[in-house]
């Protein structure tokens, strides 16, 4: 049968849109915080074969053991943050070994950008799935990638709790890291926004998504529950994306009416603890696993999106983790070869230690890690074809876009909160007399503010993926000269 010219031209247009221009990594989220222009800015033109997105003929059929070892090696070398991790996977498996084409890699990567979970881990699972010809291969690929980071963070968590809580030198280093980490979170807001405000329909900046971020920031500042914020923004954008603007606005009007009724009945805005849902008021194993599952399910846009949810549940509502310890957890996650979201392992360890000592700490570190990676593993293991069908559903894709855009506003409020705390934190001065504490606190706050500005300037000035790692090392050393409080000072 002869195809009509219109059908032929449509097919050609679709192929060209799927594209051969290899620039996908430039729009990374999360996990795009540590952007390395030398790695990602490469443009290639590739011949697009007929069955390019189905062809697995060049993928080697590996034993399960070899799949695990292959991605274990990726995990061991996963320094430099998500962009460097993804670039390493792409360089070895796509560019050098040519398991799949660059265009297919871009398409696969685009799907994982929309779904919750760290994209580097999801890519390892995808390639493990191909090499093992099934789900078990994907599972082993993901496990191999995250195990090195898990073991290292577990070790650092043990050292931190065992040595650092009352050690003046340990605390001095982490005191210097707090404003640096706060600067990283603020920089993350910008980088995530660069991706999250881009429409998946026309790849252009979408002012509605930007507006959702502003709205979600206002609602978070008013202590509106983040599940309500995300749900409303996602549903509203489903209508807005279809140009049903009045229906989208109606969703917001109904939300505001509900909020007004609540304020009238309670005679005031909600309390700060209303932002979360209280899934980890206690630190027993069940609640810690649920905390990981919640954070993993809401990690649209990358690891930094888990920070507001984990902070609210562990610090504000649960009140079993101090805010400075939470910042320290993020700092530890920055210096190790692992997905950044693995800082949650530290949170689980600390919660377990509060619950019943180091034995429970090891168990709950494992449980929160399993919980936070469960959505990622579930979506990837179910099969890429199913994922593509889900993402290509216009309403569902618009819902995910609305959530991803609104998450930026939630992170922005958290970033400002962490900024304020990192500059004004006086926890390490608790043993000083009140007179000395006031003077030393002013000095420490001034130094912390300077560190924040310098770190933010470095993150904007240098695009190398190892800059955050260097900042953490610099901060840890600088803390020994800037924040040590000895007995002579008391």
Automatic annotation (TrEMBL):
<dbReference type="InterPro" id="IPR014047">
    <property type="entry name" value="Chr_Tranpt_l_chain"/>
</dbReference>
<dbReference type="GO" id="GO:0015109">
    <property type="term" value="F:chromate transmembrane transporter activity"/>
</dbReference>
<dbReference type="Pfam" id="PF02417">
    <property type="entry name" value="Chromate_transp"/>
</dbReference>
<keyword id="KW-1133">Transmembrane helix</keyword>
<feature type="transmembrane region" description="Helical">
    <location>
        <begin position="325"/>
        <end position="350"/>
    </location>
</feature>
<feature type="transmembrane region" description="Helical">
    <location>
        <begin position="439"/>
        <end position="460"/>
    </location>
</feature>
<feature type="transmembrane region" description="Helical">
    <location>
        <begin position="139"/>
        <end position="161"/>
    </location>
</feature>
<feature type="transmembrane region" description="Helical">
    <location>
        <begin position="467"/>
        <end position="485"/>
    </location>
</feature>
<feature type="transmembrane region" description="Helical">
    <location>
        <begin position="246"/>
        <end position="265"/>
    </location>
</feature>
<protein>
    <recommendedName>
        <fullName>Chromate transporter</fullName>
    </recommendedName>
</protein>
<keyword id="KW-0472">Membrane</keyword>
<keyword id="KW-1003">Cell membrane</keyword>
<dbReference type="InterPro" id="IPR003370">
    <property type="entry name" value="Chromate_transpt"/>
</dbReference>
<feature type="transmembrane region" description="Helical">
    <location>
        <begin position="395"/>
        <end position="419"/>
    </location>
</feature>
<comment type="similarity">
    <text>Belongs to the chromate ion transporter (CHR) (TC 2.A.51) family.</text>
</comment>
<keyword id="KW-0812">Transmembrane</keyword>
<feature type="transmembrane region" description="Helical">
    <location>
        <begin position="207"/>
        <end position="240"/>
    </location>
</feature>
<dbReference type="GO" id="GO:0005886">
    <property type="term" value="C:plasma membrane"/>
</dbReference>
<feature type="transmembrane region" description="Helical">
    <location>
        <begin position="67"/>
        <end position="89"/>
    </location>
</feature>
<feature type="transmembrane region" description="Helical">
    <location>
        <begin position="362"/>
        <end position="383"/>
    </location>
</feature>
